Amino acid sequence: MDSGYPTVVKVDPSGLSAVTATLSSVAASSTFTPPAGRGFKAWSRPSNDFAGSYQLECQPIAAGPWIVVLPYSILTATPELQTITENQSGCPYRWNITARTAGSVTLGIAA
Q1: How high is the pLDDT of residue 98?
Q2: H/E/C letters for each residue in 24-85?
Q3: For residue 89, what is the DSSP state?
Q4: Rounded to whole angstroms, how far apart are CA atoms 89 and 41?
Q5: How many CB atoms lie within 10 A of CB 37?
Q6: How confident is the model at residue 10 (pLDDT cuts 50, 70, 90)?
Q7: Averaged over 68-87, what is the pLDDT?
Q8: Using CA atoms, how far apart are residues 58 and 70, in angstroms rounded to an integer?
Q9: Going edge to edge, which strands form the sheet with 67-70?
């Protein structure tokens, strides 16, 4: 039965699409640039047979080096979902598989 009320669909006010990937080799994901001052979520889910390491990185200076934000040692000791607040405008983030001998990792970043 129709209630007469419109369906409410939540849309992220940033208008940004999430970056998601399942990586099974040493590689980096696409980048995600969150709005400054807003929290964003980063998640990882390794397969049961994953053997390797990965990290979340940011690039605070255009064309500069990528800086480790969440090293693998923290990711293995904390929940799969991390909430981060970006204070610098225009700082892209990416997941980077730095070593891998087996399995895959599903990774994502979203506002």
Answers
A1: 95
A2: CCCCECCCECCCCCCEEEEEEEECCCCEEEEEEEECCCCCCCCEEEECHHHHHHCCCEEEEE
A3: T
A4: 17
A5: 10
A6: very low
A7: 80
A8: 10
A9: 67-70, 51-58, 93-102
pLDDT grade for 75, boundaries at 50, 70 and 90: confident
CA–CA distances in Å: residue 72 to residues 27, 46, 50, 77, 99: 15, 11, 13, 9, 11
- Of 34, 31, 37, nearest to 95 by C-alpha is 31
| Distance, CA of 46 to CA of 102 (rounded, Å) | 10
How far are the Cα atoms of 38, 69, 74, 92, 101 from residue 83, in angstroms, in the given order? Answer: 10, 12, 13, 15, 28
* Amino acid residing at 7: T
- Interval 47-76 mean pLDDT: 90
Indicate the Cα dihedral angle 86, 92, 96, 98, nearest 10°: -90
